[in-house]
From TrEMBL:
GO terms for molecular function: DNA binding. Residues 70-138 form the Transposase Tc1-like domain. GO terms for biological process: DNA integration; DNA transposition. InterPro entries: Homeodomain-like_sf, RNaseH_sf, Transposase_5, Transposase_Tc1-like. It comes from Fundulus heteroclitus (Killifish). It comes from the Eukaryota. Pfam families: HTH_23, HTH_Tnp_Tc3_2. This is Transposase Tc1-like domain-containing protein.
Length: 258
């Protein structure tokens, strides 16, 4: 009876005292009829619904202090395999434990091995520039956004890679930098697409052949971006927003904007 939650034991006793049959009570509480009888016998004989089993089961091998050491090891080395985690933990213990014990204790504190989430690679320099860009425009109103024309290229992979990297993490660490796998664009088995969009309208979608050069990008600006700007913003005042890809910052392209 010790493995039955105290709340459920109370439900069983309450149902029987209310006149519900043993069979119906067993069905309602999702237990066997024998369990219902044992709970009710303990109630009649000893007047209790709680279990008298205290601290039953084998004593845990790791103390709370050991668990804190383990979680610190994992938080510093998310991509370390469990045998290495076990070896590092055992350095701090008087009695070594197995890898199975380490996995069990990590699961108990809600840290599980999960496939690392793939995300675009953002360097520290890029992150700093992006943050600065956001700070400069944090006070923009909707009218400011209406005068921005966004454009970008993107590579769509036909045959994505299937490689997986497992990391130890808690649910809230899903997007922690150490728990993600940086991913960069690649061209094999893929197609590149350029598109533009503004508040007022969608722009053209172009499928680009092969490697795109600064000359190709300037042609896109001349044949597609310029007519779109003239149509949507005849009075001017438009902000053309692209990223710092090499073809966007080439001298040939900068000269066209000038």
């Amino acid at each position: 009876m010790g493995d039955i939650p105290e709340f459920k034991r109370g439900q069983i006793v309450g149902a029987l005292l209310a006149g519900v049959s043993v069979t119906k009570t067993a069905s309602l509480c999702d237990v066997s009829r024998a369990t219902v009888s044992r709970v009710m016998s303990a109630y009649h004989q000893e007047g209790r619904t709680t279990s008298n089993r205290i601290n039953c089961g084998r004593k845990r091998k790791l103390s709370e202090r050991d668990i804190r050491v383990l979680t610190r090891i994992v938080s510093k080395k998310h991509k370390t395999m469990d045998p290495q985690i076990t070896a590092e933990l055992n350095v701090h213990l008087n009695s070594s434990v197995s890898t199975k014990t380490v996995r069990r204790e990590l699961h108990r504190v809600n840290i599980h091995g999960r496939a690392a989430i793939a995300k675009p690679l953002v360097t520290r320099a890029n992150a700093k520039r992006r943050f600065q860009w956001c700070k400069e425009r944090k006070s923009w109103a909707v009218d400011n956004v209406k005068h921005v024309l966004f454009s970008d290229e993107s590579t769509f992979t036909v045959f994505p890679t299937s490689g997986r990297v497992t990391v130890w993490r808690s649910p809230k660490e899903a997007y922690h930098p150490d728990c993600c796998m940086p991913r960069v664009k690649h061209g094999g088995g893929s197609v590149m697409v350029w598109a533009a969009i503004s508040w007022h309208s969608l722009g053209p979608i172009l499928v680009l052949d092969g490697r795109v050069t600064a000359k190709d990008y300037r042609t896109i600006l001349e044949d597609h971006v310029h007519p779109m700007v003239q149509t949507l913003y005849p009075e001017g005042g438009v902000v053309y927003q692209d990223d710092n890809a090499p073809i966007h910052t080439a001298r040939l392209v900068k000269d066209w904007f000038d």
